[in-house]
From TrEMBL:
Alphabetical UniProt keywords: Aminotransferase, Pyridoxal phosphate, Transferase
Domain (Aminotransferase class I/classII large): residue spans on this chain: 61-289
Complex formation: Homodimer.
GO cellular component entries: mitochondrion
Record-level Gene Ontology MF annotations: L-aspartate:2-oxoglutarate aminotransferase activity; pyridoxal phosphate binding
Keyword Transferase annotated: yes
Source species: Acanthoscelides obtectus (Bean weevil)
UniProt record, GO biological process: L-aspartate catabolic process
Organism placement in taxonomy: Eukaryota, Metazoa, Ecdysozoa, Arthropoda, Hexapoda
Family: Belongs to the class-I pyridoxal-phosphate-dependent aminotransferase family.
Listed name of the protein: Aspartate aminotransferase, mitochondrial
Amino acid sequence: MNSGNFKNMSIRYLLFTKPRASNIQKRHFSEEFFWWKHLENAPPDSILGIKKIYNMDKNPNKVDLIVGAYRDANGKPVILPSVLEAEKMIEKKYTDKEYAPISGLPQFNQLSAQLLLGPDSSVLCNQLNATSQTVSGSGALYVSGKFMAQFFPGNTCIYLPQPTWANHEAIFKFVGLEVAWYRYCDPKVSKLDFEGLMDDINKIPEKSIAFFQGCAHNPTGVDPSQEQWCEISQLVKKRQLFPVFDVAYQGFASGDFYNDAFSFRTFLQDGHKVAILQSYSKSMGLYGEYQISKLLHEIYVVR
Ligand SMILES: Cc1ncc(COP(=O)(O)O)c(C=O)c1O
């Protein structure tokens, strides 16, 4: 097969397009073969819909704040110098395309865990962690959700802040978890509804799963204060809940990776067993690396 044919064929299979009529006859495809022909389009993604409206807007002063990605003064994408440097190092170091171990590159996992918890963390020093690489933060949500749906011994209902990133609900339902809510933000005043949050968490059935965004909450930008995190941690302990932290914006809230780790580090200090789902899409400007498992993200579970 020459390379031209090969290219056409792989594109056809990738895009699930219908082969031309002549090919259908040649290969004796029956009508039933196109089992996807009755499928309806999924509803349009609301965020990408805003992007469409943005593109149509003629205002010269418009600013794109839709996706959490770095931009320069002219609105152009920015690649962090550290990322460029890392790419050069990777290019030199990895000369083959062999399989990584099933849970990812050990060194990547170890350094990711250190970035989250600090190199002196007693969890890491005592090797109490299990860390896996996944395809981005969405992959971490999916894998951890599937893991909990299958193996969590308590109530497989995950309690999410109201509101939260729309895909949290979608992914967790998709993997078979039940989803419920606790109050988080009062939309009228864009302020944390701390009383509502504590009240609702206090009513969550024991041994359920409580989900938090570790910092820079999406979509509100509203986080509990350090004192409030300490109180939440105590309540979660009292209710014997399993805390799961989604950390998609470490560094975005305070400008400092260490400060933005306060929530989950506090929970660990308080003796919780936790799951932390880490993404570098935003914090390191790596959205475009979705397809490359080498540079990716992790799910992190403490035993
Ligand atoms: C709060 C939150 N968690 C997880 C994700 C998913 O991360 P990723 O883009 O790395 O899949 C996002 C993406 O926008 C997010 O906002």
